Amino acid sequence: AGEHRDPQRPGSGEPRTGGPLSQAVHRRSHHGRSTHGVHGHPAGTQRADDPGRPEVCNVYSLHKIFSGAEATQTVYDECTTAARGCVDCKRHLADSINDYLKDLRERREEIKARPGYVQEILHEGGKKARAIAQETIAEVYEKMGLG
What we know:
By secondary structure, this protein is mainly alpha-helical. The chain has six helices and no strands. The longest helix has 27 residues.
């Protein structure tokens, strides 16, 4: 129970904990909450002068999703050579997550500023769907000899 395997998401075969890191990447979170959530994640206790092991690090797995190939390689290189500590790695991840979600958050704010916009779209979509459904029902009635 609580398990979901997804080959695109490292660690997804493990039980969900709902801890700070999962909350950190929620698309509706604001910038500060994402940053706080990543920094509060318990993974990564390496000091800056101790080489890390990114291959077993959840934070590094998220870098592979949010930070892009070149930046992820830099994270790997700096982590394994102790040129970067976990705090710096988490700070970089938080920035990457916030950059990744920036357009989505801006669009959400635009929609939020127009309270009737979503209802308007739903109403218009309903009108279009109703017209199509009426044509389909009429065609079905005709072919069944009911009309």
